[in-house]
Amino acid sequence: MPHIHELRVYYEDTDMAGIVYYANYLKFIERGRSEWIRAMGVDQNALRDDFGRVFAVRRVEADYLASARLDDVLRVETRLSELRGARFVMDQRIFCGERLLFTAQVTVVVMTPDGRPARLPTGLRAQLEAGLAKD
Q1: Sign of the Cα pseudo-torsion (29, 31, 34, 40, in order)
Q2: Which of 1, 24, 28, 37 gives the lowest tally of CB atoms within 10 Å of its CB?
Q3: What is the CATH number of the domain that holds 109?
Q4: Rounded to an integer, what is the distance from CA 134 to the centroid of its chain?
Q5: Burial level of 106, CB count in 10 A (0-12/13-18/19+)?
Q6: Mean pLDDT lowest for which of 10-14, 96-100, 122-126?
Q7: Domain contains 107
Q8: Got the DSSP string for 54-118?
Q9: 74 in Cβ contact with 8 (< 8 Å)
Q10: Residues assigned a catalytic role
């Protein structure tokens, strides 16, 4: 079951035609990932402070399928599809009602605050495994 994050499209999210500016979909899915990780019980500040680990997006593969407009209510669905020792992959979709607008596959890497690759702490890995897509 995916994690759901809802948001409304504001004027600041749109271009002159009232259509969501393409780069804002990346902000919307970032919010979805942040809310998913919070729902999994992970405090990213504590992860940095206590374990010396941070997350960074390494790769995004995105498809823009339809436009969202001013005042639309969007649903960001986030699923963990792959979990490795030092990275994980999220599948994300944005809907307006039942209409699919955007899809993305996002690879997130684990790093030290100074940018070196690092592995997930064991306890955190177990927390994230609970969110691994079973379908």
Answers
A1: negative
A2: 1
A3: 3.10.129.10
A4: 18
A5: buried
A6: 122-126
A7: yes
A8: EEEEEEEEEEE-S--BTT-EEEEEEEEEEE-SSEEEEEEEEEETTEEEEEEEEEEEEE-TTS-B-
A9: yes
A10: 15
The predicted structure's pLDDT at residue 122: 84
Tell me the pLDDT tens digit for each residue of 107-126: 999 999 999 999 998 888 88
Expressed as residue numbers, the domain containing 118 is: 3-129
Distance CA 43, CA 120 (A): 14
Q: Say if 134 falls within a structural domain.
A: no
pLDDT of 35-89, one tens digit each?
999 999 899 999 999 999 999 999 999 999 999 999 999 999 999 999 999 999 9
**Which amino acid type is present at position 126?**
A
Cβ atoms of 42 and 127 closer than 8 Å: yes
The burial class, CB within 10 Å (0-12 / 13-18 / 19+), for 36 is: buried
The angle formed by the CA atoms of residues 128, 31 and 64, to the nearest 5 degrees, is 105
> Coil, strand, or helix at residue 51?
helix
How many C-beta atoms lie closer than 10 Å to residue 108's C-beta? 18
